[in-house]
Amino acid sequence: MRVVIARCVARYSGRLNAHLPAATRAIMVKADGSVLLHSDGGSYKPLNWMSPPCSLRVETLDAVPSDDAERPVARWIVQHDKTDDRLEIDLLEVFADTEHELGVDPGLVKDGVEAHLQALLAEQVALLGVGHTLVRREYPTAIGPVDVLARDATGRAVAVEIKRRGDIDGVEQLTRYLELLNRDPLLRPVVGVFAAQEIKPQARVLAQDRGIRCLVLDYEAMRGADDASARLF
Questions:
Q1: CA of 122: how far to CAs of 147, 179, 208, in Å?
Q2: Cα-trace Rg, the chain
Q3: Pick the CATH number of 2-99 from 1.10.3720.10, 2.30.42.10, 3.30.450.40, 2.70.180.20
Q4: Which of 37, 142, 185, 216 gives a 20 to 30 Å CA spacing to 25?
């Protein structure tokens, strides 16, 4: 992984157009080819990014035309290999540039309720619908494992993201997984299910807008602590 701390300007074009004015940011280039721009806030979410497969080309000072008052010392051009999406980053001043080999990551080991929900849903995959069968848990992708991969009664692949509390970030995460999985000719078309004990209204609206089905999970019933047949209401 390469991490560059720099004062920079960024422009994104393609399916959407976006612009980041001059500011000091952390730019991460991962081994899978992805490029991400981070600020000092916003938790783990990048301000902008380019997902793989993509290529990075660097233009040095002499090759970079600019009408700006601050002339960049270099321009990074990140072009997606399969679409017109393009991210251009003008480096105005570089404060640090480091590179480290991180090696193969063992993946996220979940604990607590979220991990239990994943295991229980894998065992009770019929909760996704009649005829669903389990493919595997923790299905690997270039940006992390999908919690559960299943197939429905028609044989269509179903990617499931599981959260204790479902919010917009979880829907965004599943959207990125679906984008990658649908590039695989052996899997596509892949549909998404966003499963959680509680799903916030904004997350539900976003999921429905993106064609993702929402599923509310009853943890107590799934682990056998709550007998639904004994309820009065």
A1: 9, 23, 23
A2: 21
A3: 2.70.180.20
A4: 142
